[in-house]
UniProtKB/TrEMBL annotation:
Pfam families: MatE. Keywords: Membrane, Transmembrane, Transmembrane helix. Belongs to the multi antimicrobial extrusion (MATE) (TC 2.A.66.1) family. NCBIfam families: matE. It is a multi-pass membrane protein. The keyword Membrane applies. Its main location: membrane. The keyword Membrane applies. This is MATE family efflux transporter Mmp. It comes from the Bacteria. It comes from Luedemannella flava.
Length: 417
């Protein structure tokens, strides 16, 4: 649920802002794509912390697992403040570069939205780090309450700030910041009442940075893909970029709902291997693979059935809806495959096999996705070519993950070192 927070914020924003016009929705696509970099940093913290905390918890040392969360939170706070300051310096050049051929007003609106929204970066990262250690110790109820409460606040504030108070696009950014900051504060409070040492621990910080390095490179490959997709969409015009935003935010919401299976994989596989139960970890991996595929199929049925309804909820522009429908078959076809991919991602993160995930993602991004998307642009394939490249990215990862899980070399017992 916590990992879905930022995409859910942006999904609500997409629905609210989409009715301001295609230019505003295109601006949100640019700004939201850049803000997603912050959520990606949070995922690095959350995934790395879940795996190590789960292994410590499985080995019977809950206190050490929570202390792992303290260290991750120090990294989150430092990273969040650093990102917020950096974006204030580079927001203009970044948004203008991504906007490309779109209406010049798109880049300006995206810059204003991003400068406000990035102030929530410390809250985003603290919430991700907090969810990481809580998942590791299998405390899943509190994170859900914290994030659900923040989402409800954002969902209530966004339309009020955008329309009755007349803040327009910037109103959605303010709603995001309020909700993200509250969510981060709740996770900090959970650490304060846990009764564990709160001082930074250099050894643990170094270990987390090593794990984070591989996840960071892996995440950079993801972000290169999504930002390239936004840049290509912008070069087809505001309507295509707005349609891509609709599809991408729905995809992100589905993906991170499916990622709940990956979260279970991180916690269960990490705990099993931490306790020395290698056969149990392998059985869990097989079960999660099947469950991920079936859940992905369920999402595909729902999204496919809503093809002629869902785009209209986000935009009243006929050109935007028409282009969204071109992407829809690719979107639907990806979901069952993605369910398996996300489940196995969680298995390998829980097992600490992050180097393999890094290498596989780099191959899928650099050797397949990026050449495919820019070739599609050269051939003028439009939004269909863009989403075909995204599908190829998923398929390549699926093949690599299935081969790895069948081999069994990933299942190594023991606590993190």
């Amino acid at each position: 649920m916590v990992l879905a927070a930022e995409p859910l914020y942006l999904l609500v924003d997409t629905a609210v802002v989409g009715h301001l016009g295609s230019a505003e929705l295109a601006a949100l696509a640019i700004g939201g794509g850049l803000l997603a970099l912050v959520a990606w940093l949070g995922n690095v913290l959350a995934y790395g912390t879940t795996g190590s905390a789960a292994r410590l918890f499985g080995a019977g040392d809950r206190t050490a697992a929570v202390v792992d969360g303290v260290q991750a939170s120090w990294l989150a706070l430092a990273g969040g403040v650093g990102v917020a300051l950096l974006v204030q310096l580079v927001a203009g050049p970044l948004t203008r570069t991504l906007a490309g051929n779109a209406d010049p007003g798109v880049a300006e609106a995206a810059e204003g939205w991003l400068r406000i929204a990035v102030l929530g970066a410390p809250g985003i990262l603290l919430a991700m780090a907090g969810n990481g250690w809580m998942r590791g110790v299998q405390d899943t109820a509190r994170p859900m309450r914290y994030v659900l409460g923040a989402n409800l606040i954002s969902a209530a504030l966004c339309p009020v700030l955008v329309y009755p108070l007349g803040l327009g696009l910037n109103g959605s950014a303010i709603a995001n910041v309020v909700a993200q900051t509250l969510s981060g504060a709740l996770f900090v409070r959970a650490l304060l009442v846990a009764g564990v040492p709160l001082a930074p621990h250099p050894g643990t910080l170094r270990r987390q940075l090593v794990v984070g390095r591989d996840l960071l490179v892996r995440g950079a490959a993801f972000q290169a893909c999504f930002l390239s997709a936004a840049a290509v969409g912008a070069r087809y015009g505001a309507a295509t970029l707005a349609a891509h935003q609709i599809g991408l935010q729905l995809w992100s919401a589905c993906a991170l709902a499916l990622d709940s299976i990956a979260i279970a994989g991180q916690a269960l596989v990490g705990a099993a291997l931490g306790g020395g139960d290698v056969p149990g970890a392998r059985r869990t991996a097989r079960r999660l693979t099947v469950v991920g595929g079936w859940c992905g199929l369920g999402f595909a049925i729902v999204i496919g059935a809503g093809a002629f309804v869902l785009p209209g909820l986000f935009s009243g522009d006929a050109a935007v809806r028409e282009r969204a429908l071109v992407a829809w078959p690719w979107f639907v076809a990806m979901l069952p495959l993605a369910g398996v991919v996300f489940a196995l991602d969680g298995v390998f993160i829980g097992a600490g096999d992050v180097r393999f995930l890094r290498n596989l993602t780099l191959v899928a991004a650099l050797a397949f996705f990026l050449p495919a998307i820019w070739l599609g642009y050269r051939l003028d394939l439009g939004i269909g070519g863009l989403w075909a490249a995204l599908s190829l990215f998923v398929v390549v990862r699926l093949v690599g993950l299935l081969a790895r899980v069948a081999g069994g070399r990933w299942a190594v017992a023991g606590a993190p070192t």
